[in-house]
Amino acid sequence: MAIYKAPRGTHDIYGRIALGLEKLDEYARTVFKKHNFKEIKTPMFEDAALFTRSIGEATDIVEKEMYLFQDKKGRNLALRPEGTASLVRAYIEHRLDMEEPVGKFFYCGDMFRYERPQAGRYRQFLQMGAEYLGNPNPNADVEIILLAKEILSKLNITDVVIHINSLGCDKCRPVFRQKLVEYFSSIQDLCDDCKRRLEKNPLRLLDCKIDSRKFQNVPAMQQCLCQECNEHFNKVQQLLKTVDCSYVIDDKLVRGLDYYTRTVFEVRSSAVGSHDAICAGGRYDNLVKELGGQQIPSVGFALGSERVLLAAEKTNFFDNIKTNDIVFVAVADEFLFDKAFAFANDLLINKNNICSKLNLPEKITVEGPLYNKSLKAQFKLADKIGAKKVVILGNDELVKNQVVVKDMQTQQQELISL
Ligand code: HAM
């Protein structure tokens, strides 16, 4: 018989990681809602051209990593590699700009990239992201950075470095691009990817994992920023200082997606591979227009949930995840099984306030009764699953409308009338 395994680069999420993801989701939603971001859900697949147009033809994502397929009608579709393009498509399609002057949205969901799998890098992974549309002011850039930082700090991930850079705008980036072309043309033995990108997208060379060591004294974008972009970048830094948010300027930070203008940032943690960010984002002032909408300057970020949890392994986050106390319903006499089943149901719905009568908290997890098991076997199981209390239903007690509640920690038993 064939033995099936999860496809390479995917992973099953269960146990403590599933609990961790649930908690991260809860924390992130609380932070997003506090900042008045509203949830939006978009499809997991889109017209492939949407991503080519927005992320950029000469990016790794579009060139090598997209999961492309045709449906039965021959439409060219792609599993989404990220959330921003889909969100902007939905924003334009539903004229969401008409509803509110600024649009603040958040999303959570699976993304797909055909990357080389390693720790914290998957082919199907989870992102939570926020997009702030319609605010050109540097305060929006800083709010987005702080939002990311606030979510991480809820998981006690504070050992992070925030890298920031400015990629300028349509006015000043061509100057930088030209300087880069001149610089890179003088470097010998560029790798094949870099040679190709030198013509199509020279900024991407700054991100090359193979050649970057050869790039000494490479020109920096900041030397080429126009006055407006320079002022914007300075203001971002000034606001970050005002709110005591430390950062480093990283003039090699170019990001793997082409839609960015001005501010870009990445949050890195030593707990995850040195170059892999746990969350990242930036400003994209032209994307809405490029995809057919108005000129709506925007900024956003996304965190990789698996990578955030990897960083959280170094904190006390997992130890502090609280789950409901488990109450195990045990049946002493087999013929009482149906009664025990009904009793467990009463506990689940807290019928007639039964939990307080039994000195149990209102939020509990109920396990049992288990069919055809000796009382000893039931106790063994209750112990194994970490039950706090076992409620034992026996005939002698039930005729007097009583049950026995055993505290598994102290081993003390109490007879309680219902
Ligand atoms: P990104 O940097 O491509 O940006 O991805 C954001 C985050 O997703 C990364 O920092 C990382 O934590 C996680 N991530 C990316 N690829 C993988 C992978 N293969 N496995 C696990 N985690 C991964 C974006 O996607 C932009 N849409 C962010 C953005 C929002 N910019 C503006 N608005």
How would you characterize the overall build of this protein?
- Helix content is 34%, strand content 21%.
- The two termini are 54 Å apart.
- It has 418 residues and is α+β, with helices and mostly antiparallel strands.
- The mean pLDDT is 94.
- The strands form three sheets. Strands 1-5-6-11-10-9-7-8 form an eight-stranded mixed β-sheet. A five-stranded mixed β-sheet has the order 13-12-14-15-16, sandwiched between helices. It has a three-stranded antiparallel β-sheet with strand order 2-4-3.
- Residues 82-84, 113, 115, 120-122, 125, 127, 129, 131, 256-257, 277-282, 300-304, 306-307 line the site of histidyl-adenosine monophosphate.
- The site of histidyl-adenosine monophosphate has 27 residues, from strand 6, strand 10, strand 11 and helix 10.
Low-pLDDT ranges = none
In what range is the share of β-strand residues? 15-25%
The ordered H/E elements are: HEEHHEEHEEHEHHHEEEHEHEHHEHEHEE
Helical percent range?
Answer: 25-40%
What is the SS-derived class?
alpha+beta
Overall, the morphology is elongated
Most strands sheet: 8 strands, mixed
Bound ions, cofactors and other small molecules, one mention each: histidyl-adenosine monophosphate
The N- and C-terminal alpha carbons lie at a distance of: 54 Å
Q: Whole-number radius of gyration?
A: 28 Å
Number of helices: 14
Strand order of the largest sheet: 1-5-6-11-10-9-7-8
